[in-house]
Amino acid sequence: MAATILYGKDIAQDIRAELANDVEELKKQGVEPGLTVILVGDDPASHSYVRGKERGCQEVGIRSEVIYKDASISEAELLDLIHQLNENPNVHGILVQLPLPPHISEKAVIEAIAPKKDVDGFHPLNVGNMMIGYDTLLPCTPHGIVELIKRTGTPIAGKHAVVIGRSNIVGKPVSFLLQQENATVTMCHSRTVDLAAYTRQADILVVAAGKPHLIGREHVKPGAVVIDVGVNRIETGKLVGDVKFEEVREVAGYLTPVPGGVGPMTITMLLKNTVAAARKQTA
Ligand code: GUN
């Protein structure tokens, strides 16, 4: 039987409607959630992502501001700007769009953001809290993936989840969150020998390798939930995931498309974090 296609944008829409209500409630209490995004340089993909974030904020009623800085900004100037935003009580969330120019340390920038305003969930304190299962600001893509899986109605507890990719932004954190949901998790990566031997055992397969068309029919257990986190632009200019969509939809139980799968969930989790941060900072 063909897979049910998991349109993240539809699920994201439902969550955004819930968030719009939360924002309205906060506004009645005199709190207007605010997100500030810092965008350094003129990378077209970054500009496009940031426009998506602004649109999302508008949709749910979050006040958003984008501070554009030239790629020549010094690290010290950028850190100074972050420190000012840390002190500003009207700014509940701060996001510095990555990547940054090579003369600026991403580590220094992430560590400069006040953990309570770190709506990306990238600060080491928030990463540590997530790892030990404390209530904290969770990284947006992994959190969005877990929400997507939950909204299929598939129980995660006891399932075998296989994650391909060990990045700090997706692979590592999603493996922790799935363990937190009581899945048995196997992590695979570019040096894994006989990838298919692992993936064929997966009830839940999360593919975040950044390799177009890595996963075909032969990698997938019939009925599995397959989440494709890949975003690859191929020679024709088309965006494709890491999964051979047409092939895998014939065997999987659920499958996310690219685009329109995980992507819209990521921004929605950013909005959710901003609302949560505003609530906490004003409680
Ligand atoms: N660049 C690409 N994805 C992201 C993200 O999730 N957060 C930030 N800050 N930059 C990004």
The helix-and-strand class reads alpha/beta
Strand order, main sheet: write it out: 1-11-8-7-5-6
Q: Based on CA inertia axes, which overall geometry fits?
A: globular
Q: CATH superfamily of the largest domain, please?
A: NAD(P)-binding Rossmann-like Domain
Report helical residue fraction: 40-55%
Count of alpha and pi helical runs: 10
CATH topology of the largest domain, by name, is: Rossmann fold
Beta-strand segment tally: 11
Q: What fraction of residues sit in β-strands? A: 15-25%
Order of helices and strands: EHEHEHEHHHEHEHEEEEHEH
| Ligand set | guanine
List keywords for this structure.
binds guanine, 10 helices, 2 domains, Rossmann fold
Write the layout of secondary structure elements.
Layout: E1 4-5, H1 8-28, E2 34-40, H2 44-60, E3 63-69, H3 75-87, E4 93-96, H4 106-112, H5 124-131, H6 140-150, E5 160-164, H7 171-180, E6 184-188, H8 195-199, E7 204-207, E8 225-228, E9 232-233, E10 239-240, H9 245-248, E11 254-255, H10 262-281
Parallel strand pairs: 1-11, 2-3, 2-4, 5-6, 5-7, 7-8, 8-11
Antiparallel strand pairs: 9-10
Bound molecules: guanine.
Residues 49, 95-98, 120, 140 line the site of guanine.
Pathway: One-carbon metabolism; tetrahydrofolate interconversion
Pfam families: THF_DHG_CYH (PF00763), THF_DHG_CYH_C (PF02882)
Protein name: Bifunctional protein FolD
